[in-house]
Structures are given as structure tokens and as C-alpha cells.
Design brief:
Blueprint: E1 5-16, E2 19-25, E3 36-43, E4 46-53, E5 62-67, H1 75-80, E6 86-89, E7 108-114, H2 119-127, H3 130-133, E8 136-143, H4 152-161, E9 164-170, H5 184-189, H6 192-197, E10 205-211, H7 213-225, E11 239-243
Parallel strand pairs: 7-8, 7-10, 8-9, 10-11
Antiparallel strand pairs: 1-2, 1-6, 2-5, 3-4, 3-6
Bound molecules: flavin-adenine dinucleotide.
């Protein structure tokens, strides 16, 4: 049951048409990177509620990375919202898509996102705890068009400074424009994701997948073929997922 508090939309960055980061000023409870918050707006006289993963680090202004769904209920109203407008937020963080649930002996963390599924990984990378928990972090972001590579400069900068590899994957790129231009399952099957990362998947790798459910299903299947298995608290494995729909 959500307990709403009123926040204010204070910042917005548009990455491409229908793709933006929203900054909200509101008194949320402390959260772990990877968790999400329920957010609500009144749309046509009815309260409409949706889940959004925090892209901000704990303690910073709450930030969400959002794609507009043109025939959706919530996002067209969100994208119309002017700066300074109120937005309802449940201050209690939700979810278990966090690195605190992962096996303690994992050495490399692979963060594979499609579209706005990158948001929780940005939170993890900004918070920085992943760099003490793992020897190396590989973040791969799959989008159709290069214009949808939100946070690209920040991730490139991070890759220069930390034990982090950033791999943009653009499936509709012009030939030769991006080294990785196929979906994750293909890149896993032919070994090109591991070659680009300079690291191989092994029994102490952990892979977190976030975004589109078809990407998650197909990539999980490809990882299982590589000898990895789903992670459960009582049955430790290598694959942890968050589906956006
Ligand atoms: C735990 C969790 C965390 C989430 N975090 C985020 C987030 O950080 N950023 C975000 O953009 N969305 C996120 N979502 C999805 C979000 O809750 C909404 O479903 C989405 O914004 C669409 O809302 P809508 O009312 O406009 O569309 P709806 O009327 O609810 O239509 C839903 C349809 O929109 C499509 N859709 C849903 N989400 C997306 C998306 N992200 N990109 C493209 N198509 C989509 C699917 O086809 C889905 O069936 C999250 C969902 C969950 C369950």
C-alpha cells in the first residue's frame, strides 16, 4: 500500500525525443542502488501509479531515466509536466535488484541493460560500492539508435577512472559505426561481448539484466547455454533480473 508524499519536478534532461531524465525533490527514505520507487500523477482525474528505478545515488537528488510510451497512460503525462510541478512519490524504496543479494565470491559484475533499464546500473555505478565488492564491472547498454545512449559521457568517464568497462551496443547503427551492433544473445553466442570486455564469463561472474522482458528471456537463455544459472537466495547462481514490463 503506497503512502504518497508530494515531490517537485526540479530538473529534466532530454537525451532524445521521448527519452529523458527527471530530477525530483522529495524526502525519500534511504535506499540501495537498484531499488525502485512508486510514483503517481493524476491523469484525467484518476491517480495513475508506476514504478521507476532510481538512477541517482543514495543521498543525491532522486533521478529517474524514463522512456515515453506514446500510447501509455503515465509517461505522456510525465513528459508534459513543467518544472516546478508536483509529483507524488511513495518514499519507501522497493525491490531486491541490488548487489547486496549477490554471492559474496563473485569477482566480476556484468550489468546488461536495454533502453532505460540502464537506470539502476547508473545508480550502482554512481554510488561506487560495486567497485569494492567486485574486481571489475562491465556495463553494456543496448539501444536501437545511438541517440538513445543516455549517460554515455558519464559512463565513458567512469570507465577511464575506475575498474569499469563501458560497452555501448547499437542494433541499428550504420555498418562499422559501433563495434557491437547485435542483440545480447548473439553477442554472447559468438563471443564478441566477452572479447570487447576483455573478460570471459566464468563460474564467479555475476550478470544483472534489466529492461525489456524479451531481452531478459533471450539473454538468460544464452547465459544458461554458457553454463550459468539463475541466482536465488537459497540456491546461489549467476543471473539476476529486473523486468520493466
Ligand atoms: C520495477 C520496475 C522498475 C521500472 N523502472 C523504470 C525506469 O526506471 N524507467 C522506465 O522508463 N520505465 C521503468 N519501468 C516501467 C514503468 O513502470 C512503466 O511501465 C512505463 O514507464 C510505461 O508506463 P505507461 O503508463 O506510460 O505505459 P503503460 O500504459 O503502462 O503501457 C505499458 C507498455 O509500455 C511498454 N513499456 C513499459 N516500460 C517501457 C520502457 N521503459 N521502455 C519502453 N517501453 C516500455 C511496454 O510495451 C508495456 O507493455 C519500471 C517497471 C518496473 C516493474
Amino acid at each position: 500500500m503506497s503512502r504518497w508524499i508530494s515531490g517537485t519536478l526540479v530538473r529534466r534532461r532530454d537525451w532524445a525525443p521521448g527519452l529523458a531524465t527527471f530530477g525530483i525533490d522529495c524526502a525519500i527514505e534511504d535506499f540501495e542502488p537498484g531499488q525502485f520507487f512508486n510514483v503517481a500523477l493524476d491523469v484525467a482525474g484518476e491517480r495513475c501509479k508506476r514504478a521507476y528505478s532510481a538512477a541517482s545515488a543514495p543521498g543525491a537528488e532522486l533521478e529517474f531515466y524514463v522512456a515515453q510510451v506514446s500510447d501509455g497512460q503515465f509517461t505522456p503525462a510525465l513528459f508534459e509536466l513543467p518544472l516546478g510541478a508536483p509529483i507524488q512519490v511513495d518514499p519507501v524504496p522497493q525491490g531486491f535488484f541490488t548487489t547486496s543479494w549477490l554471492p559474496p565470491d563473485a569477482t566480476e559484475l556484468w550489468l546488461l541493460a536495454s533502453g532505460t533499464g540502464l537506470g539502476p546500473f547508473v545508480s550502482m555505478l554512481r554510488a561506487g560500492q560495486v567497485f569494492t565488492q567486485f574486481e571489475r564491472v562491465i556495463v553494456a547498454h543496448c539501444v536501437r539508435d545511438a541517440s538513445a545512449l543516455g549517460y554515455e559521457e558519464e559512463l565513458e568517464q567512469l570507465a577511464r577512472e575506475r575498474a569499469c568497462t563501458y560497452l555501448p551496443v547499437v542494433t541499428r547503427a550504420a555498418p562499422g559505426e559501433f563495434a557491437l551492433a547485435e542483440r545480447f544473445p548473439r553477442l554472447l553466442d559468438d563471443g564478441s561481448l566477452e572479447s570487447a570486455a576483455g573478460v570471459s564469463l566464468h563460474q564467479r561472474s555475476h550478470v544483472m539484466l534489466c529492461g525489456n522482458p524479451a531481452m531478459i528471456a533471450d539473454t538468460t537463455a544464452a547465459l544458461i547455454l554458457r553454463g550459468l544459472k539463475k541466482h536465488r537466495r537459497r540456491d546461489p547462481g549467476h543471473i539476476t533480473v529486473e523486468k520493466y514490463w
